[in-house]
Write a structure and sequence with these properties.
It contains 9 helices and 2 strands. By secondary structure, it is mainly alpha-helical. Strand 1 and strand 2 form a beta hairpin. It is globular and about 65 Å long. The structure holds fe (ii) ion (2 copies).
C-alpha cells in the first residue's frame, strides 16, 4: 500500500495535503517496534468482556501470523515466499500490538482462567448463532471440552493463587459474539482514519522521524508486496483487487491500471 509523501503528512494544513497529487512511494508498513506497544488495560477496572475481546483479537492475529510463516516457505516461487514472509512480519506486529493490551500484572493462573473462559465464550457464541444443526453439534462438543478446561483452570487458580476465579471473571456469559457484515465499517475507517499513526503508545497524524527511519530501512529495496502488484499489472493490466462495494474510499489508493 502507498501513503502520501512525508512532506504532505507532516503538514497539518489540509489544503496543502490535498495539493499533493502524485506522491512518491511511501509505505504504510512497517512500524518501528517501539510504536507497536500499546497501553495495557487495567485488570482491576476493565470490564470482563473487554478482556475477552483483547484475547480474541490477539488469538486471531497469532493464527494469521502462524499461517503466513508456516505456509510461506512451501511455495516454490521466490516472490511468493518473500511476500508471505513480509505479511508474516506485519502479522507479528499485529500480535505485539494486541498482546500488549493485556495487563502484564495478571498472574499466570488468572491468564489461564481468562483464556479458557474466552474459549468457552467463543464456542458458546458459535453454538448459539449457528443455524445448521450438524455444525451446531460440533460447537457444542467443543464448548463441553472447554468447560472442562475452565473447571480445571479455576481449580488451579484457587490452589496456586489463593483467589476465587469469580473475582476476575464476568458474573454471567456476555451476549454472544455475532458475525455481521463489516465492509461499510472498514470503508468508513479507511476513509477517516488512514492517516493516523502511532508514536510510542499514543496516536498522531504526523509521520514522525522514527516511523520514516524504519520505513527507509525495511523498504530500502522495493518490497515484495509492490513487486507482486507490478507483475500483476504488467501481465493483466491492473492491480489484483476485488472492489465489491465501490472504489477505495481514499482516492490516491485506488486501482492504478497500467499506463
Ligand atoms: Fe493482522
Ligand atoms: Fe481450552
Amino acid at each position: 500500500m502507498r501513503s502520501r509523501p512525508s512532506e504532505c503528512i507532516t503538514s497539518s494544513n489540509r489544503s496543502r495535503i490535498r495539493a499533493c497529487r502524485t506522491p512518491p512511494l511511501v509505505h504504510l508498513q512497517h512500524r518501528d517496534p517501539t510504536d507497536n506497544v500499546r497501553e495495557p488495560y487495567d485488570k482491576a477496572s476493565t470490564a470482563p468482556l473487554s478482556k475477552l475481546h483483547a484475547l480474541t483479537i490477539m488469538a486471531a492475529e497469532q493464527q494469521t501470523m502462524n499461517f503466513y510463516m508456516n505456509v510461506g516457505p512451501m511455495y516454490m516461487e521466490p516472490i511468493a515466499r518473500q511476500l508471505y514472509q513480509e505479511i508474516g512480519l506485519v502479522e507479528e506486529e499485529h500480535v505485539t500490538h494486541y498482546e500488549s493490551l493485556v495487563d502484564p500484572g495478571e498472574s499466570w493462573w488468572e491468564r489461564l482462567v481468562n483464556h479458557e473462559y474466552n474459549e468457552c465464550y467463543l464456542y458458546y457464541s458459535f453454538m448459539q448463532t449457528e443455524t445448521d444443526p450438524r455444525v451446531k453439534g460440533i460447537w457444542e462438543l467443543h464448548l463441553n471440552m472447554e468447560l472442562e478446561h475452565l473447571r480445571l483452570a479455576c481449580d488451579l487458580m484457587r490452589r496456586h493463587d489463593d483467589r476465587d476465579p469469580e473475582s476476575v471473571l464476568a458474573p454471567a456469559l456476555p451476549e454472544p459474539v455475532t458475525f455481521e457484515p463489516n465492509k461499510q465499517l472498514v470503508r468508513e475507517l479507511l476513509g477517516t482514519q488512514i492517516d493516523w499513526a502511532t508514536l510510542g503508545t499514543g496516536y498522531v497524524q504526523d509521520m514522525h522521524e522514527r516511523f520514516e527511519r524504519m520505513q527507509d530501512k525495511i523498504n530500502a529495496e522495493r518490497p515484495p508486496q509492490e513487486r507482486v502488484i507490478d507483475e500483476h499489472r504488467d501481465k493483466f493490466g491492473d492491480e489484483y483487487r476485488l472492489a465489491t462495494d465501490g472504489p477505495h474510499p481514499v482516492e490516491r489508493l485506488r486501482d492504478k491500471p497500467r499506463t
